[in-house]
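Each record in this resource describes a single protein on a pair of labelled lines. The shape at a given residue is found from the number at the same position. The record below illustrates this layout:

***
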Amino acid sequence: MQKTRVPRNPRSRTLNTQASRDHEAASSSPQSADHSHAPRSSQPSEPSHLNDTELRLQEQFDYLEAQFERLKDQTRQAQRLASLGTAATMLAHEFNNLMSPVVGYAQFAIDSKDPELMAKALRITLKQTGIMTAMSDRILGLAANEVSAVQRVNIKEAIDDARECLIRDLSKDNIEFITEIDKSLTFLADPRQMQQVFFNLLSNARQAIQHRHGRITVAAERIDDETVSISFRDNGSGIPSDSLDAIFGEFYSTKKDRPGKSGIGLGLSLCRDIVEEHRGTIQVASEVGKGTIFTLKLPSGS
């Protein structure tokens, strides 16, 4: 019997080609597509779910950050109002002193009906009320919750402005005030914020001296082309060494142990915050019974 040999080329190629086409068609058929999609149906949703979670977390973070900034502004305003309360006591005392000659001359001029005395009473009234108006303006400026632009500030003028905010002249408390500052020395700062810092440091120094014969010295110098140093030195009661690391903390006050003194402990913490926001540093050194010195280093902007 003759064996028949099956050709391998035309038929097998046709079958292979057809099988390949059938496989491709099956792969692209709707049923196959649905079947292949089914086990992966949850995969596209995972990245979307993660993105939604990240978005919510970012929104919460932004909200908390905004709340933190708002609370920080409120705390700073509270400190300003606390400073205002300190100054208001002096303001009331000084107003009484300023009004006494006004009332005395006015009453005397009315009783005597002397035109010259009346004119003198008017001149004194204008002078004293001008002083009181200036005092009130300083207090209002100290309490204002406004942010001004960073600008070049004359250091001596800024210190003098802060000293004027104390209202009561330091010499009336038997305190000598000394400045060792070149009149041309300047630095870059928000003048209103730095006035708050200088006022707090001067106010603390006056309270540390406690109305005994004392001295406050403010000195400034250029350290290098980019930095100035401003120091506030007093010969008051000093700060215990175990308290030095804590005095810049919120609500810590060295006045709590002083008879007749009180404080909420926000002044120095906000001084530190303001100085650091100006890319500066503040340091303290003190010795009980000899005094304290605060040193600020701030950008000169040269």
The chain has a mean pLDDT of 75.
